[in-house]
Amino acid sequence: MRKTAALLALLLAALMTTGCSVLEEEYPSADPVMLSRRLTDRAQWAYEAMALPPHKAVKPVQVIPSPSCYAGGFNIEKTVPDVVVFDLTWTVEGIPVDVAQSVEARLRRKFIAEGWALVHDGNRRGKDFVMLGFRVKDPSTGDAFDLSWNGVTTSLFLSGYTPCAKVPKAAADNPAPGTWTPRTA
Questions:
Q1: How far are the Cα atoms of 14, 21, 69, 110, 146 from residue 72, in angstroms, in the given order?
Q2: Which one of 1, 4, 40, 89 is CB 3.0 to 4.6 Å from 180, fit for a cystine?
Q3: 64 phi/psi in degrees, rounded to 5
């Protein structure tokens, strides 16, 4: 038994010192322009599906590639070079609870009808608070969207994320963040 434990410890030490990637996650390659476009196209689709009543203009938001993807395995605290995730978040302020409830239910139904999986239900009510929201994930791309609203701020937030993907080194080293503003009719 001691020999087995010693052998396993030696093997583990060898893997760690050689930087073996056997236990590290491999990320798929992707075109950063395509990732950004896919995310902003779905954000526009969601904006239209929400069918919001007249509201203040949504401010332009950054579509930012960020290096927040981790190696996994033995290097869970280390980000992987040339691997990024794109995200965007936009807000509409001053949405009353009854409007927020109908918008949340409508958008949830639309995402599910498109084949997205509901992975989190964030609807909560308490004596002094109301929180609405959900997270959906596209099983074919891994993209995810979160909708949230709370009675304290009365702001509706929609966030979208792509999964981690390996991009060309130049795109990872010098990201070109874009902006997005919903097109209105």
A1: 17, 9, 9, 34, 25
A2: 40
A3: -115, 125
- Could you give the CA distance from residue 95 to residue 101 in angstroms, rounded to a whole number? 10
Exposed (0-12), middle (13-18) or buried (19+): which is 172, by Cβ within 10 Å? middle
Q: Does residue 63 contact residue 40 with C-beta atoms inside 8 Å?
A: yes
Tokens representing 47 are 């904006």
- Which residue type does 13 have? A
Whether 121 and 54 have beta carbons less than 8 Å apart is answered as no
**For residue 96, which of 108, 88, 104 has the smallest C-alpha distance?**
104
The amino acid occupying position 95 is I
In this predicted structure, the answer to whether residue 12 has a pLDDT above a threshold of 80 is no
Contacts of 28 (CB under 8 A, 6+ apart): 165, 166
Task: At 82, list the tokens.
Answer: 């040339």
| CA 61/CA 177 separation, integer angstroms | 10
Q: And the tokens for 101?
A: 């409830």
State pLDDT tens for residues 124-167: 988 988 999 999 999 999 999 999 999 999 999 999 999 988 88
Q: Which residue has the higher pLDDT, 33 or 79?
A: 33
Cβ(136)–Cβ(116) under 8 Å? yes
Q: Alpha-carbon distance 100 to 138, whole Å?
A: 23
| Nearby residues of 89 by Cβ (< 8 Å), 6 or more positions away | 61, 157, 158, 159, 160
